[in-house]
Amino acid sequence: MNSIKELLSNSNNIIIVSHKNPDGDAIGSCLALFHYLKKLNQNPTIIVPNDYPEFLKWLPNNDSILKYEETKTKSDDLISNADIIFALDFNAFHRTGDMMSILDSSNSLKIMIDHHQQPDDFATYTYSDTKMSSTCEMVYHFIDKMNNTDLIGKDIATCIYVGIMTDTGSFRYSSTTNITHNIISSLIEKGANNTLIHNNVYDTNSYNRLQLLGKALNNLIFIKEYHTAYISLTQKELRDFNYKKGDTEGIVNYALSLNRCKMAAIFIEDEKQGIIKISLRSKGSFSVNQLSRAHFEGGGHTNAAGGKSDLNLKETIAKFISILPQYKNALQNEI
Ligand code: 5GP
Ligand code: MN
């Protein structure tokens, strides 16, 4: 921490980056760190690979975030000239999509703050803790270890709150500890408006999004034998309900909420990328991180992971069903 403190006082060009399809924890942690570095008289720039859901766009200084796919030349220039790059909420360059090559070739010092499993060894300083609820919780600890919690005002508190809330399913997953709640308590004390934050993130559904959710729930299949549920959405179904980024976020959790369900999946057709995007969730010790790494080029956490498939939707689902017998014992155990 002493070295980082010194580095921060001697560096001019600081870049903060996060993963592709940024979620609440990615955007929350980037913006929280941004506001904190501003208080240290730095002028950092946040670059994320691509666009993110509308329900995150009310966060303070959202407008200053660069999206790499829209600002490639400028962003390449910024990354090439960076003294320090903070890598937040991811632990392998391939998670940044098209930003991967410029990050890989940059000679900048890198600081990783992340809670995903099996981190790559690309950073000069790695703060990795897979037990943490969220990268936002780690940003709080980072500021605390810098002895700077007195610098946390309403903006930082709001951004950290959002990431902890979204990554813990509103404080219910097992990664939520008494320390997480202590931090939330101090964030509210420092000005985070909890009711407003929950409302802005969760209660701003469009009519189309709710109709799409209805469609998804109609498509739900439960494979009793393996305590496994899955949902699929075709590109046509997404189009029918005027799909916007973020509209499918959280739908997989409805599948997991089925009584006796141990693993849930959602398969979403993405014609533009020519892939099926997969989200996986589980309860207890069953690791969807391992399943996704083994079969769907993905990863994440024990109970929440993502991946993709180059097969078509039908074939992808058939592949998923065909691998279940390999996990028979683990899936058939009681939760
Ligand atoms: P989601 O299903 O909400 O997109 O992602 C769940 C978790 O898995 C998140 O922590 C996310 O960072 C991770 N994740 C999602 N997609 C991928 C992927 O394609 N590769 C890897 N390694 N992790 C992913
Ligand atoms: Mn996260």
What features would you describe in this structure?
It is a single chain. With 335 residues, this protein is an alpha/beta fold. It folds into 2 domains: 2-202, inorganic pyrophosphatase (n-terminal core) (Alpha-Beta Complex); 207-332, Diaminopimelate Epimerase, Chain A, domain 1 (Roll). 40% of the residues lie in helices and 17% in strands. It has 14 helices and 12 strands. The protein has helices spanning 2-10, 24-39, 72-80, 100-105, 135-145, 154-167, 178-189, 194-202, 207-218, 235-240, 251-256, 288-295, 313-323, 328-332; strands spanning 14-17, 45-48, 66-67, 84-88, 109-114, 125-128, 221-223, 228-233, 263-270, 275-282, 299-300, 304-309. The strands form 2 sheets. A 6-stranded parallel β-sheet has the order 3-2-1-4-5-6, sandwiched between helices. It has a 6-stranded mixed β-sheet with strand order 7-8-9-10-12-11. Strand 1 (14-17), helix 2 and strand 2 (45-48) form a beta-alpha-beta unit. The structure holds guanosine-5'-monophosphate and manganese (II) ion (MN). Guanosine-5'-monophosphate binds next to strand 11 and strand 12.
